[in-house]
Amino acid sequence: MPVITARVPEQILEDLEKLEKEEHTDRAETVRKLLASAIKEWKKKKALEMLREHKVSYRKAARMTGISYVELLQLASKHGVDIGYSLEDLKRDVS
User: Fold this and answer.
1) Contacts 24+ apart (CB under 8 A), 8-11
2) 3-class state of residue 83 by DSSP
3) Is the dihedral of CA 81, 85, 90, 92 positive or negative?
4) d(Cα 64, Cα 83) in Å, to the nearest integer?
């Protein structure tokens, strides 16, 4: 497994130490969990941004984020992202 080294402000180190104690894990495991969580959230944010700009489909955005299509639809709805299909589109398709 590759190693990452980073300098952090004192406050982040203190918070990290608190998390280590609460989670009963060592520093490496705590940092891995935090990085994984932050990356997952970043992927969701990026996917929502790309959906808003109609740069990707919902299925592709779901694959990008590693969540299901239904979960992505729920996430997009929660964040006010339209599905790219308007009421006018529906009326046109029905008639």
Assistant:
1) none
2) coil
3) positive
4) 17
Q: What percent of the chain has pLDDT over 70?
A: 95
Q: Are 51 and 81 in contact (CB under 8 A)?
A: yes
Instruction: Quickly state the pLDDT bin for 86 (edges 50, 70, 90).
Output: low
What does each C-alpha distance from 67 to 11, 16, 39, 44 come to in angstroms?
A: 33, 28, 13, 9
With tokens 């990026």, the residue in question is: 46
> 26-44: per-residue pLDDT in tens?
999 999 999 999 999 999 9
Residue 5 tokens, joined:
């080294």
